[in-house]
Amino acid sequence: xxxxxxxxxxxxxxxxxxxxxxxxxxxxxxxxxxxxxxxxxxxxxxxxxxxxxxxxxxxxxxxxxxxxxxxxxxxxxxxxxxxxxxxxxxxxxxxxxxxxxxxxxxxxxxxxxxxxxxxxxxxxxxxxxxxxxxxxxxxxxxxxxxx
Length: 147
Known about the structure:
The chain is α+β, with helices and mostly antiparallel strands. It has four helices and three strands; from the N terminus they run αβααββα. The chain has helices at 19-28, 36-43, 47-59, 82-116; strands at residues 34-35, 63-70, 73-80. Strands 1-3-2 form a three-stranded antiparallel beta sheet. A hairpin with a 2-residue loop joins strand 2 and strand 3 (73-80).
């Protein structure tokens, strides 16, 4: 994880923390701009929700919105700004830092747990070792429908 100028870890960006905003910024980071309907379908949200989300991200300077016509039909396009790309990169770095710290903490705690648990050799305290741990999950290509 990249530390800030004062040595502190980068913080999560409050404006990108919401799942819809994060999905929108991530999608826009992969292209120069995208049309409103494409973004709506990708995020699987209503027109109203996407409009409010774009407005919120536009107010923070993370997204720019352009309105125009395609033929005689009005269209709206959105693009991630330079500051939005920088904010997304910092947010993702902070998330990775949190995940890395958690993995290190779990790895450090593992030797302590294995020596003190009497049922660890039978597998009764491990997740997924019993029939009650079996669960069905549905999969989706959209990041908005994941549990």
